[in-house]
Structures are given as C-alpha cells and as structure tokens.
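hey so i finally got around to running the thing on that chain from the lab meeting. sorry it took forever, my laptop kept dying and i had to restart like 3 times. anyway pasting the input first so we r on the same page abt which one it is
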Amino acid sequence: MYDAIVIGARCAGAATAMLLARQGHNVLLVDRAAVGSEIPHGHFIHRGGPQRLQKWGLWDKVVATGAPPVHKVNMVIGGAPLATDDLYLGGIPFGLAPRRAAIDRVLAEAAVAAGVELRDRFLVETILRDGERVTGIRGRDLATGETESFRATIVIGADGRNSRLAQAVEAPVYEAVPSVSCYYFSYWRGIPFDRLEMHIGMDQVIFAFPTNDDQLALFIAWPIEKFPEVRQDIEGHFMAALAQAPELATQVAAGERVERFYGTADLPNFFRKPFGPGWALVGDAGHHKDPFMALGMGDALRDAELVAVAVHAGLLEEKPLLAALADYETQRNEESMPIYYENLNRARFVPPPAEMRQLRAALIANGDQADIDMFYKATLGLLPLAAFFNPDNIGRIMARQAASMAA
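ok and heres what got predicted. didnt touch it at all, straight out
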C-alpha cells in the first residue's frame, strides 16, 4: 500500500512524486514509456519554472544536459524588433529549453533519489475503485507481460491531456475551447543562437530558441483554419513562413536540419476538475492550453508543487484531503485563468489593443533599454505587471515619445 501512486513520469508526474517523497511519503511512479525517451512536444520553460528547478536543486543538473540558459529575447512585429538581454530573476535566467528526454530524465532521477519507486514501461490498463473512491491501478509490465495491481491512498494522474485517470473518473471539463492553431517544428545544427526570438505576423508566428546538443529549435504556428493547407506541403509552408523573417532565414540556411518535421493541430484548451475521492490530476491532465505562450512546462512544475502541498497536508491529516485538493484547484485557477485567455487571444492572432501597440511603438522610438527591460520583465512574469503597467510609468513613456516627436 502506497501513500500515492503517480501515473506519468515526465515533468508534472516526476516532480510531484519527487516532492511527495522528499516529505517522507511512500510513492510509486509509473509510466508506459522508458524514462528519458523523447517525445515531440514544446519545451521552452519560463514563468517560474527555472526558479523552481533552482529551489529543488535541479537547475544545474538540467543545464548540465546541454540546455543553454536563455536571458535574451527579441520580439519582432511588423519587421520592428524589440530586444532585451537582461532577463534574470534571483540570478537565474528567465528561461531554458531542454529537450524532453533531458529534463524528464533529470526529474525522474531526482524522484528516485528521494525514495520514489519507479516502474517505467508499465502500462496502466484499469483504475481500481471502491464505489466512487479510486483505490489504485492495475496494469501490465511491457517487458515481461505480467499484470500487477497496486493500491494507494491517492492516485495522481500526470498522464497528459488524454489522461486515462481523468477519463475513468469522468473528471468534469470547464472553460473548454477547441484547437485554435496548428504547429510544425524541427531542429537545426550549425547555427549559433543564444536567445528566444519571436516573429509575429498576421497569421503566423515563428519561435526560435537554442536547445540541447548546440541545436536550434524552430516552431511555427498558423491559425487552425490553415492546417489542411499546411499539412499538404509541410516543408514548403514552413520555409515560406520562415522567409518572412529574412535575417533568421539566412541563419537557418547556413545550418542543417537534423530531424524530421513534427506537428499537430490537436491542441484543445480546457480545465478539468483536478480532484475527487482518492484521485487528483496535475499538468496537462488537469489543464491544457495552446503552446503559443509556452506555458505548459512552467505550469506543470508549479502545479506539481501545489498538488504536493495539498496531498501532503491531507496525508498528514492536517486538513481533510478533499478540502486540501479544493485549495489546489483554487490556487491553480487563480494563477492560470487570466493568462489562459490572454494565450488564447494570441493563439487566435487577435491583434493587441491599440494602447499596447502605441506603447510598443513608444518603447522602440524612445530607445530606453531600461524601459524595454522592465517591459519584458513584467510581461514575462519576472515582475508584477503593476511594476511597469501603471499610469505614471506608461504616461512617462508616452510623454517622452511625444516630446521627441514635437522637437
């Protein structure tokens, strides 16, 4: 009998298992795949993710896999760049983009080091229940074919947006929006690159950033309506979109693509009720969104921390487990809901409000790097929004542009 069983040994699941084990709980972590296997998936981590890795003692280990920390950003809209190279929080760069095989392995190894029992290549086939309460799992060892059952006080699903646990308990879905965009991406070598670069157009966006093995990751998104057209000639549409960013296209032309194109239009947006009697959901199993703002992995690490706090309190009977998990849902939604809709608007290519366009133009015209740095720190979650977006500060920036134009 375990205190907790976690289904899914990637970001959300391995982190959850690790945090529970570090608090003294007896945890089983299972995954149908081999630990450290690659999956085609977005993998830029920011918005508190790097700081959590640092707090958990894992930042240096993730960086040591060859994932370069990123503290520079260049966002290009309408051909006009706005760049910063000073994005740090607590001395840690604002982001990094380890391949999933790399970070998932680091987290799984940290979980095992904390005392977690890990069973990879184990396929969960049945969620065990006693009435309405989830009590465990039954599954098959894919190496031996042996069927085994395990029981726990709580079963935590970190098994992705198509979560078997969520389906078994019929977890209610809310704030659901169908896919609004499609993505294709691949990797190039031979291209020195040290920043997150975004080229945002009317109906396409390019994301470029460095990753493991001195490679450049390139992701391009289009509105969902373009998916049937794009998939007919993936490389042709990809390179045509890239040509809209001439300097980046020139850099890419000097390199060599080392993997095939990956892509999907299966990107539903939703929240699930993330708990019930004997069960909880974390990561994409509980909340999934379009990759536009690269929120997924940072949210997975955050929610792992939130659910681990709740489960720990429940297991120690500091608070009834269901009440603690209700707090987890409230905290998750308070942090996720506003940016969920901002992300949807961006993924739909909704133009920013006129005020934001005017502010961006003023920042470019003024050329004050301190203001630009503060703008990025606020919009990327390194500072409270009000630290930059307050009437006095915005008025000062706009007045400076007006004075310059009048001179």
